[in-house]
Design goal:
The protein is mainly α and about 80 residues long. It contains two helices and no strands. The longest helix is centred in the middle third of the chain and has 57 residues.
Length: about 80
C-alpha cells in the first residue's frame, strides 16, 4: 500500500511541477513585454503630467478644480479640497 500511495504522490507532484514550469515559461515571455510597455509609457507619463499641470492651472480656484482633485488627488494647494456633496 505505501508503494501505491507514493506513486500517486509522485504523479501529483510531477503534474504540479509541469504546471509550475508552464507558469515560469509564461512569466519569461511576459517580462520583455512588460519592459516594452514601461519604455513606451514613460514619454506618455511625462506628457500626461504636463497636461494635468496645464489643466490644473486653468481650473485654479473653481469647483472644477475640486473635481479634478477628487479624480487625480490633490495638487499643490495650501488646504485639502472639500468633498463634493
Amino acid at each position: 500500500m505505501p508503494g501505491i500511495a507514493l506513486a500517486d504522490y509522485q504523479a501529483e507532484t510531477q503534474a504540479f511541477k509541469a504546471l509550475f514550469d508552464q507558469l515560469r515559461a509564461l512569466v519569461a515571455q511576459l517580462k520583455p513585454l512588460l519592459q516594452q510597455l514601461d519604455t513606451t509609457g514613460q514619454p506618455l507619463d511625462a506628457k500626461n503630467k504636463a497636461a494635468l499641470k496645464t489643466l490644473r492651472g486653468l481650473l485654479q480656484g473653481g469647483e472644477n478644480e475640486v473635481l479634478l482633485d477628487q479624480i487625480t488627488g490633490p495638487g499643490t494647494q495650501s488646504s485639502p479640497a472639500p468633498p463634493v456633496a
